[in-house]
Amino acid sequence: MFTGPLQALVDELGRLPGIGPKSAQRIAFHLLKVAPEDAMRLAEAIVDVKERITLCPRCFNVAEGDLCAICSDDRRDGTMLCVVEDPRDIVAVEKTQEFRGRYHVLHGALNPLEGVGPDQLRVKELLGRLDDEAITEIILCTNPNLEGEATAMYLARLLKPLGLSVTRIASGLPVGGDLEYADELTLGRALEGRREVDA
Amino acid sequence: MSLYRDEGVVLRTIRLGEADRIVTMITKAHGKVRAVAKGVRRTKSKFGARLEPLSHVSLLCWQGRELDIVNQAEVTDTFRAVREDLGRVAKAYTVLEVTDQLSQERHANPRLYDMVVGALRALDARDAPLLVPAFCLKVLALEGSSPVVDECVSCGEREGLVAFDIIEGGVLCRSCRRGRSISPAALELVRRILGGGLTSALAEPDGPLAGEVTDLATEAMEAHLDRRLRSVRSSPTA
Ligand SMILES: [Zn+2]
Ligand SMILES: [Zn+2]
Questions:
Q1: For testing the chain A interface, which of B36, B82, B89 should be mutated: the one with the most A CBs within 10 Å?
Q2: May I ask the CATH class of domain B3-80?
Q3: What global pTM score does this model have?
């Protein structure tokens, strides 16, 4: 137990994901030692984020102001929608520079063991967008794990009858990896998703 | 730390740190095991999809005090047909949840283990409507908590059994009736599942009868666990 403000800091740090009591103490003592302006910069960054960053009311990406940068960019293709689990997945897809449409963030994936059903995700909002926007194609870009696959199957079942083109990102082998280390499920799907080689 | 070999089915995983996961498995010889899979969330992890929930794997693990560490994992079954069918995934989730609730850490229960593998293999082969209730009833029997279905739990009457009350522990006759009602066909089906007629029960079609037996088995399992089955309550197919 530490004196008032220090204990408060340790407690707050300890609430952060992945930070145990020991790490919380270490970070708190580090902050105690650093120059005041360094600690203040961190404090201001936290305040700034909380005051200025919200969720985009249309796609639920992080946004500064009203709509997020992608929703407010007219050069994006409004007919294509990429559905992801988390705003961080948008960053990953954007880095590929392969996608020029817009996004929809579910904020999670179906996980029946944790009690996460469709109602806990931004699924209703996704359906709402189909009425309001000129979307014709949906790419399901959820994680390639059991929860992400189940979410993609659920959404496909919901969206396909509406006459949209619904696709799922392909599973395959990581570029630069060795085939002999590939697991059976990944390799099996990669074989199934094989494509013609240009000659 | 000592190294051990075993086989297991992955029940669930949770994220740990930047790229790791804690994998909860039921193993044949070590009971429920929680082990760290290092780097498993990286796309180039040597584990790949091998330690996803549902995978049946042979394992090499370092034994730790609280958490073990997965050293190697090789796939025995991927249950791919289950993974790629929403209805079957939902059923598999319930099998995994029940198993997670009933298995004890580092306490081998090879019969439960064999039942889990058997249930997942059956589900991979065919989407049997009664797979989950059959699994629940069989596991309850293994636990010594099988509902009484041969005679009235209150008076011992063997004819005219019309009700089912899980608090009482089984079926009831017309004069003792309480709880929910049970149709003669559902009673016959439950008896068949518990009495060695599993294969024929799994061939039963979907419909109101399968629904009745499913509700009844879910209720019995939830009473036994003294908690709700989340996978049933938040199923994406519900
Ligand atoms: Zn947006
Ligand atoms: Zn009676």
A1: B89
A2: mainly beta
A3: 0.86
